[in-house]
Amino acid sequence: MSPLLIAANEENPLVPPIPELVIGLLAFVIVFGFLAKKLLPNINKVLEERREAIEGGIEKAEAAQTEAQSVLEQYKAQLAEARHEAARLRQEAQEQGAALIAEMRAEGQRQREEIVAAGHAQIEADRKAASSALRQDVGKLATDLAGKLVGESLEDHARQSRVIDRFLDELEEKAEAGR
């Protein structure tokens, strides 16, 4: 026989036998039908749930981000308001401090003036007391000295007072004229 006929009688290894092809095709249709009826809806359901969960998560994330942004804006507004309030309180405290310092200075000035006035009054009272005591002592000494010079006693108090007052008044006038 010829080699071509021998090759034609022999089966081609690339082409399967028809009964195997029919059984394989039938098994494929059964498995594919089973997958399409039972497994594919479950897979599609799980995929749909996953897609919805992802989309819902994205929406929730966007909502959370929007809410976080609004909370951040509120926080910034509150912070700005708090800073403004702090600045106002600082300014108010500075103004109160300045007013308190001015008040304390005025009070100190008033007290100083009172002390100075009291000191002047005390000095004037002391000067008058010293002047009166000095007049009496000078008058007594002058009358004693005059009595010794004249050799008579000048015990007449009325005359003695007039002489002493006149003498001291003349001394005061000369002292004031010398200034």
From TrEMBL:
InterPro entries named among the record's database cross-references = ATP_synth_B-like_membr_sf, ATP_synth_b/b'su_bac/chlpt, ATP_synth_F0_bsu_bac, ATP_synthase_B_chain
Quaternary structure, from the entry: F-type ATPases have 2 components, F(1) - the catalytic core - and F(0) - the membrane proton channel. F(1) has five subunits: alpha(3), beta(3), gamma(1), delta(1), epsilon(1). F(0) has three main subunits: a(1), b(2) and c(10-14). The alpha and beta chains form an alternating ring which encloses part of the gamma chain. F(1) is attached to F(0) by a central stalk formed by the gamma and epsilon chains, while a peripheral stalk is formed by the delta and b chains.
Q: Where in the cell is it found?
A: Cell membrane
Q: Which domain of life is it from?
A: Bacteria
TM regions (residue ranges): 21-40
Q: Which taxonomic lineage is given here?
A: Bacteria, Bacillati, Actinomycetota, Actinomycetes, Kitasatosporales
How is it placed in the membrane, per its record? Single-pass membrane protein
Q: What does this protein do?
A: Component of the F(0) channel, it forms part of the peripheral stalk, linking F(1) to F(0).
Main location per the UniProt record? membrane
SUPFAM superfamilies referenced in this protein's UniProt entry, alphabetically: F1F0 ATP synthase subunit B, membrane domain
Q: Write out the similarity annotation.
A: Belongs to the ATPase B chain family.
Q: Mind telling me what this protein is named?
A: ATP synthase subunit b
Q: Name one Pfam family in it.
A: ATP-synt_B
> By its UniProt entry, which PANTHER family does this protein fall under?
ATP SYNTHASE SUBUNIT B, ATP SYNTHASE SUBUNIT B', CHLOROPLASTIC
The coiled-coil regions, if any, are 44-99
